[in-house]
Amino acid sequence: MASVRGCSTVIVNGMEGEPLSEKDGWLLTHAPHLVADGAIAAAELLGAREIVLAVARDGLAGVLGPRGVRVVRGPDRYLSGQESALAGWVRGGRPVPAARRPADRGIFVSNAETFAHLGLIARHGADWFRSAGTAAAPGTLLLTISGAVARPGVVEVPVGSPLAPLIAGSSGAVLTGGYGGAWIGAQGARSLWLEPEAMRERGAVLGPGIVSVLPATVSGLSDTRRIVRWMAAQGAGQCGPCRFGLPAVAADLDALDLDPGALPRLRARAELLRGRGGCAHPDGVERLVSSALDVFAHELRAAA
Ligand code: SF4
Protein backbone atom coordinates (compact mmCIF):
# COMPACT_ATOMS: atom_id res chain seq x y z
CA MET A 1 0.00 0.00 0.00
CA ALA A 2 1.24 3.52 -0.78
CA SER A 3 2.85 5.30 2.15
CA VAL A 4 0.76 8.19 3.46
CA ARG A 5 2.49 10.19 6.16
CA GLY A 6 0.13 11.18 8.98
CA CYS A 7 -2.87 9.66 7.24
CA SER A 8 -6.14 11.05 8.58
CA THR A 9 -8.63 9.99 5.89
CA VAL A 10 -9.22 6.98 3.67
CA ILE A 11 -11.41 7.72 0.64
CA VAL A 12 -13.20 4.97 -1.24
CA ASN A 13 -13.55 6.28 -4.78
CA GLY A 14 -16.88 5.03 -6.10
CA MET A 15 -17.40 7.99 -8.43
CA GLU A 16 -17.45 6.04 -11.68
CA GLY A 17 -16.46 9.16 -13.66
CA GLU A 18 -15.72 7.09 -16.76
CA PRO A 19 -19.03 6.71 -18.66
CA LEU A 20 -18.34 3.12 -19.75
CA SER A 21 -17.36 1.85 -16.28
CA GLU A 22 -19.89 -0.01 -14.17
CA LYS A 23 -17.66 -2.01 -11.86
CA ASP A 24 -17.53 0.30 -8.84
CA GLY A 25 -21.32 0.57 -8.83
CA TRP A 26 -21.56 -3.19 -9.30
CA LEU A 27 -19.25 -3.83 -6.33
CA LEU A 28 -21.00 -1.34 -4.07
CA THR A 29 -24.32 -2.98 -4.94
CA HIS A 30 -23.30 -6.65 -4.89
CA ALA A 31 -20.40 -6.84 -2.42
CA PRO A 32 -20.38 -3.68 -0.25
CA HIS A 33 -19.20 -5.73 2.74
CA LEU A 34 -15.91 -6.49 0.93
CA VAL A 35 -15.36 -2.82 0.12
CA ALA A 36 -16.14 -1.86 3.73
CA ASP A 37 -13.83 -4.58 5.12
CA GLY A 38 -10.99 -3.34 2.89
CA ALA A 39 -11.55 0.31 3.80
CA ILE A 40 -11.58 -0.51 7.51
CA ALA A 41 -8.40 -2.62 7.16
CA ALA A 42 -6.68 0.21 5.27
CA ALA A 43 -7.75 2.80 7.87
CA GLU A 44 -6.41 0.61 10.68
CA LEU A 45 -3.09 0.02 8.87
CA LEU A 46 -2.63 3.72 8.10
CA GLY A 47 -3.96 5.01 11.41
CA ALA A 48 -6.70 7.02 9.68
CA ARG A 49 -9.53 8.39 11.81
CA GLU A 50 -12.07 8.76 9.04
CA ILE A 51 -13.37 6.67 6.12
CA VAL A 52 -15.26 8.45 3.33
CA LEU A 53 -17.16 6.77 0.52
CA ALA A 54 -17.57 9.11 -2.48
CA VAL A 55 -20.30 8.19 -4.96
CA ALA A 56 -21.88 10.05 -7.85
CA ARG A 57 -25.28 8.40 -7.56
CA ASP A 58 -27.74 7.89 -4.72
CA GLY A 59 -28.41 4.30 -3.78
CA LEU A 60 -24.78 3.15 -3.79
CA ALA A 61 -24.12 3.64 -0.10
CA GLY A 62 -25.44 0.14 0.69
CA VAL A 63 -24.30 -1.25 4.02
CA LEU A 64 -21.27 1.04 4.28
CA GLY A 65 -23.06 3.89 6.05
CA PRO A 66 -23.90 1.95 9.23
CA ARG A 67 -20.27 0.76 9.46
CA GLY A 68 -18.87 4.18 10.41
CA VAL A 69 -18.27 5.26 6.83
CA ARG A 70 -19.18 8.85 5.90
CA VAL A 71 -20.95 8.77 2.55
CA VAL A 72 -20.68 11.84 0.32
CA ARG A 73 -22.24 12.41 -3.07
CA GLY A 74 -19.74 14.00 -5.44
CA PRO A 75 -20.30 16.01 -8.64
CA ASP A 76 -21.14 13.70 -11.53
CA ARG A 77 -18.27 14.74 -13.82
CA TYR A 78 -15.49 12.74 -15.45
CA LEU A 79 -12.67 14.44 -13.57
CA SER A 80 -14.40 14.39 -10.18
CA GLY A 81 -13.11 10.84 -9.75
CA GLN A 82 -9.49 11.86 -10.35
CA GLU A 83 -7.72 11.25 -7.04
CA SER A 84 -6.44 14.76 -6.28
CA ALA A 85 -9.77 16.27 -7.39
CA LEU A 86 -11.68 13.96 -5.10
CA ALA A 87 -9.36 14.57 -2.15
CA GLY A 88 -9.69 18.34 -2.60
CA TRP A 89 -13.47 18.16 -2.89
CA VAL A 90 -13.88 16.00 0.25
CA ARG A 91 -11.87 18.70 2.08
CA GLY A 92 -14.23 21.42 0.84
CA GLY A 93 -12.40 22.53 -2.33
CA ARG A 94 -13.31 22.47 -6.04
CA PRO A 95 -13.50 19.01 -7.65
CA VAL A 96 -10.65 19.64 -10.08
CA PRO A 97 -7.22 17.96 -10.34
CA ALA A 98 -4.54 19.59 -8.18
CA ALA A 99 -0.74 19.54 -8.17
CA ARG A 100 -0.67 18.46 -4.53
CA ARG A 101 -0.92 14.69 -4.18
CA PRO A 102 -3.59 13.34 -1.79
CA ALA A 103 -0.84 11.48 0.14
CA ASP A 104 0.80 14.85 0.91
CA ARG A 105 -2.45 15.95 2.56
CA GLY A 106 -2.70 12.81 4.70
CA ILE A 107 -5.34 11.24 2.45
CA PHE A 108 -5.33 7.76 0.94
CA VAL A 109 -7.62 7.41 -2.09
CA SER A 110 -8.31 4.26 -4.03
CA ASN A 111 -11.15 2.70 -5.95
CA ALA A 112 -13.78 0.29 -4.69
CA GLU A 113 -12.13 -2.66 -6.45
CA THR A 114 -8.83 -2.14 -4.62
CA PHE A 115 -10.61 -1.98 -1.27
CA ALA A 116 -12.56 -5.15 -2.09
CA HIS A 117 -9.23 -6.87 -2.82
CA LEU A 118 -7.87 -5.60 0.51
CA GLY A 119 -10.98 -6.94 2.24
CA LEU A 120 -10.38 -10.38 0.71
CA ILE A 121 -6.67 -10.33 1.60
CA ALA A 122 -7.55 -9.40 5.20
CA ARG A 123 -9.93 -12.36 5.28
CA HIS A 124 -7.99 -15.05 3.37
CA GLY A 125 -4.35 -13.92 3.38
CA ALA A 126 -1.82 -12.82 0.77
CA ASP A 127 -0.97 -16.37 -0.39
CA TRP A 128 -4.60 -17.00 -1.24
CA PHE A 129 -4.69 -13.73 -3.24
CA ARG A 130 -1.52 -14.67 -5.12
CA SER A 131 -2.97 -18.05 -6.13
CA ALA A 132 -4.73 -16.25 -9.01
CA GLY A 133 -3.17 -14.05 -11.66
CA THR A 134 0.49 -13.77 -12.62
CA ALA A 135 3.67 -13.40 -10.56
CA ALA A 136 4.00 -9.76 -11.62
CA ALA A 137 0.30 -8.95 -11.28
CA PRO A 138 -1.41 -11.30 -8.82
CA GLY A 139 -5.13 -11.52 -8.19
CA THR A 140 -8.19 -10.96 -10.31
CA LEU A 141 -9.60 -8.13 -12.40
CA LEU A 142 -13.08 -6.71 -12.63
CA LEU A 143 -13.91 -5.71 -16.19
CA THR A 144 -16.86 -3.83 -17.65
CA ILE A 145 -17.65 -5.41 -21.03
CA SER A 146 -19.92 -3.42 -23.34
CA GLY A 147 -20.76 -2.63 -26.96
CA ALA A 148 -21.33 -5.26 -29.64
CA VAL A 149 -20.87 -8.32 -27.45
CA ALA A 150 -23.16 -11.23 -26.68
CA ARG A 151 -22.81 -10.88 -22.90
CA PRO A 152 -22.27 -7.29 -21.70
CA GLY A 153 -21.78 -6.65 -18.00
CA VAL A 154 -19.22 -6.81 -15.20
CA VAL A 155 -17.03 -9.93 -15.04
CA GLU A 156 -14.19 -11.05 -12.78
CA VAL A 157 -11.25 -12.92 -14.33
CA PRO A 158 -7.74 -13.82 -13.14
CA VAL A 159 -5.08 -11.32 -14.28
CA GLY A 160 -3.43 -12.76 -17.41
CA SER A 161 -6.64 -14.29 -18.82
CA PRO A 162 -7.29 -14.12 -22.57
CA LEU A 163 -9.72 -11.45 -23.76
CA ALA A 164 -11.10 -13.57 -26.63
CA PRO A 165 -13.69 -15.62 -24.66
CA LEU A 166 -15.18 -12.42 -23.20
CA ILE A 167 -15.89 -10.96 -26.63
CA ALA A 168 -16.59 -14.23 -28.48
CA GLY A 169 -18.74 -13.86 -31.57
CA SER A 170 -17.93 -10.16 -32.04
CA SER A 171 -15.82 -8.82 -34.90
CA GLY A 172 -15.25 -5.11 -34.29
CA ALA A 173 -12.30 -3.05 -33.06
CA VAL A 174 -12.08 -2.80 -29.27
CA LEU A 175 -11.75 0.26 -27.06
CA THR A 176 -9.58 -0.70 -24.07
CA GLY A 177 -9.27 1.40 -20.92
CA GLY A 178 -12.28 3.60 -21.65
CA TYR A 179 -12.42 7.17 -22.98
CA GLY A 180 -8.82 7.87 -21.98
CA GLY A 181 -7.66 4.49 -23.29
CA ALA A 182 -6.72 3.12 -26.69
CA TRP A 183 -8.31 1.37 -29.65
CA ILE A 184 -6.97 -1.97 -30.73
CA GLY A 185 -7.85 -3.66 -34.02
CA ALA A 186 -10.24 -6.61 -34.16
CA GLN A 187 -7.57 -9.21 -34.86
CA GLY A 188 -5.12 -7.94 -32.26
CA ALA A 189 -7.83 -7.74 -29.61
CA ARG A 190 -8.67 -11.40 -30.02
CA SER A 191 -5.12 -12.46 -29.13
CA LEU A 192 -4.79 -10.03 -26.20
CA TRP A 193 -3.98 -11.17 -22.66
CA LEU A 194 -5.45 -9.19 -19.79
CA GLU A 195 -2.29 -8.22 -17.94
CA PRO A 196 -1.20 -4.56 -17.66
CA GLU A 197 2.31 -4.94 -19.11
CA ALA A 198 1.24 -7.37 -21.87
CA MET A 199 -1.53 -4.95 -22.86
CA ARG A 200 0.82 -1.95 -22.87
CA GLU A 201 3.23 -3.79 -25.19
CA ARG A 202 0.37 -4.27 -27.67
CA GLY A 203 -0.77 -0.65 -27.48
CA ALA A 204 -3.82 -1.46 -25.33
CA VAL A 205 -4.69 -0.05 -21.90
CA LEU A 206 -6.17 -1.77 -18.86
CA GLY A 207 -7.02 1.52 -17.09
CA PRO A 208 -10.32 1.24 -15.24
CA GLY A 209 -10.95 -2.24 -16.69
CA ILE A 210 -13.10 -1.23 -19.66
CA VAL A 211 -13.52 -3.29 -22.82
CA SER A 212 -16.00 -1.96 -25.37
CA VAL A 213 -16.48 -3.55 -28.79
CA LEU A 214 -17.35 -1.24 -31.69
CA PRO A 215 -20.47 -2.36 -33.56
CA ALA A 216 -19.80 -3.31 -37.19
CA THR A 217 -22.16 -0.57 -38.41
CA VAL A 218 -20.39 2.25 -36.54
CA SER A 219 -17.41 4.18 -37.93
CA GLY A 220 -14.44 4.10 -35.55
CA LEU A 221 -13.44 7.64 -36.48
CA SER A 222 -16.96 8.92 -35.87
CA ASP A 223 -17.04 7.26 -32.48
CA THR A 224 -13.63 8.75 -31.65
CA ARG A 225 -14.90 12.21 -32.66
CA ARG A 226 -17.83 11.82 -30.29
CA ILE A 227 -15.60 10.73 -27.41
CA VAL A 228 -13.00 13.48 -27.97
CA ARG A 229 -15.69 16.20 -28.08
CA TRP A 230 -17.01 14.87 -24.78
CA MET A 231 -13.52 14.70 -23.24
CA ALA A 232 -12.76 18.25 -24.39
CA ALA A 233 -15.90 19.44 -22.60
CA GLN A 234 -14.81 17.67 -19.38
CA GLY A 235 -11.45 19.47 -19.08
CA ALA A 236 -11.14 21.67 -16.03
CA GLY A 237 -9.73 24.56 -18.10
CA GLN A 238 -6.81 25.19 -15.75
CA CYS A 239 -3.99 24.27 -18.14
CA GLY A 240 -3.22 25.11 -21.78
CA PRO A 241 -3.69 21.55 -23.12
CA CYS A 242 -7.24 21.45 -21.75
CA ARG A 243 -8.21 25.03 -22.59
CA PHE A 244 -6.82 25.15 -26.12
CA GLY A 245 -5.39 21.76 -27.10
CA LEU A 246 -8.41 19.50 -26.61
CA PRO A 247 -10.90 21.75 -28.48
CA ALA A 248 -8.37 22.16 -31.33
CA VAL A 249 -7.87 18.39 -31.59
CA ALA A 250 -11.64 17.85 -31.57
CA ALA A 251 -12.00 20.42 -34.39
CA ASP A 252 -9.25 18.77 -36.46
CA LEU A 253 -10.93 15.40 -36.07
CA ASP A 254 -14.21 16.91 -37.28
CA ALA A 255 -12.43 18.43 -40.29
CA LEU A 256 -10.70 15.23 -41.47
CA ASP A 257 -13.16 14.58 -44.32
CA LEU A 258 -13.14 18.19 -45.53
CA ASP A 259 -9.66 19.65 -45.10
CA PRO A 260 -6.52 17.86 -46.41
CA GLY A 261 -4.43 19.84 -43.92
CA ALA A 262 -6.40 18.53 -40.95
CA LEU A 263 -4.59 15.18 -40.62
CA PRO A 264 -0.99 16.47 -40.27
CA ARG A 265 -2.28 19.26 -38.02
CA LEU A 266 -4.13 16.73 -35.88
CA ARG A 267 -1.05 14.51 -35.53
CA ALA A 268 1.10 17.48 -34.50
CA ARG A 269 -1.46 18.86 -32.05
CA ALA A 270 -2.13 15.46 -30.48
CA GLU A 271 1.61 14.98 -29.98
CA LEU A 272 1.76 18.32 -28.16
CA LEU A 273 -0.79 17.13 -25.59
CA ARG A 274 1.49 14.39 -24.27
CA GLY A 275 2.89 15.13 -20.81
CA ARG A 276 1.87 18.81 -20.92
CA GLY A 277 -1.18 18.89 -18.65
CA GLY A 278 -1.36 19.22 -14.90
CA CYS A 279 -2.87 15.74 -14.89
CA ALA A 280 -3.17 12.82 -17.31
CA HIS A 281 -6.46 13.92 -18.91
CA PRO A 282 -4.85 15.30 -22.12
CA ASP A 283 -2.54 12.26 -22.32
CA GLY A 284 -5.59 10.01 -22.42
CA VAL A 285 -7.04 11.98 -25.33
CA GLU A 286 -3.71 11.86 -27.18
CA ARG A 287 -3.54 8.08 -26.75
CA LEU A 288 -7.12 7.63 -27.92
CA VAL A 289 -6.62 9.81 -31.02
CA SER A 290 -3.26 8.29 -31.99
CA SER A 291 -4.64 4.76 -31.68
CA ALA A 292 -7.73 5.73 -33.71
CA LEU A 293 -5.59 7.11 -36.56
CA ASP A 294 -3.73 3.82 -36.60
CA VAL A 295 -6.59 1.33 -36.17
CA PHE A 296 -9.02 3.20 -38.45
CA ALA A 297 -6.46 4.15 -41.13
CA HIS A 298 -8.67 2.34 -43.68
CA GLU A 299 -11.44 4.87 -42.98
CA LEU A 300 -8.99 7.73 -43.57
CA ARG A 301 -7.88 6.20 -46.90
CA ALA A 302 -11.50 5.69 -47.99
CA ALA A 303 -12.27 9.35 -47.27
CA ALA A 304 -9.16 10.69 -49.10
S1 SF4 B 1 -4.75 18.98 -17.71
FE1 SF4 B 1 -6.86 19.64 -17.74
S2 SF4 B 1 -7.94 18.37 -16.27
FE2 SF4 B 1 -5.72 18.14 -15.89
S3 SF4 B 1 -5.23 19.66 -14.33
FE3 SF4 B 1 -4.91 20.68 -16.30
S4 SF4 B 1 -6.87 21.66 -16.81
FE4 SF4 B 1 -7.24 20.18 -15.16
Automatic annotation (TrEMBL):
Residues 225-302 form the NADH-ubiquinone oxidoreductase 51kDa subunit iron-sulphur binding domain. Residues 144-172 form the Soluble ligand binding domain. Keywords: 4Fe-4S, Flavoprotein, FMN, Iron, Iron-sulfur, Metal-binding. Residues 8-117 form the NADH-ubiquinone oxidoreductase 51kDa subunit FMN-binding domain. It comes from the Bacteria. Belongs to the complex I 51 kDa subunit family. It comes from Actinocorallia longicatena. InterPro entries: ComplexI_51kDa_subunit, Nuo51_FMN-bd, Nuo51_FMN-bd_sf, Nuop51_4Fe4S-bd, Nuop51_4Fe4S-bd_sf, Soluble_ligand-bd. This is NADH-ubiquinone oxidoreductase-F iron-sulfur binding region domain-containing protein. Its cofactor is [4Fe-4S] cluster; FMN.
